[in-house]
Amino acid sequence: MDALKLAELPDRFDTVIDSGLFHVFSDEDRQSYVDGLSLVLKPGGRFYLLCFSDEEPGTIGPRRVSEKEIRETFAKGWHIQSIERSRYEVRPDPNDPSFKDGGPKAWFVVVGRVTS
Q: pLDDT at residue 12 above 70?
């Protein structure tokens, strides 16, 4: 399933979980993705998001997302219930010092779909 074509899904859900997809989209595609989410998530449903944070230093890994970008993306038709600093848990590689000190920094976000 193409995450940018969620509107094609016949089902509707109470809960949607995204761990590691949101941050790979361009700004335009990110908005298309969230527009699709609004069609497949039932009013009152919850979206749980774990995405790469702009607080992660360096340039290794995926695009960084700021708290501001999250708030702007979910400004209409959504209610942000929480945004918390978090980390991805990764398997340590002694030959690659990337993402040391507890794993890459992330945002853990809980967003509710506004009821009509």
A: yes
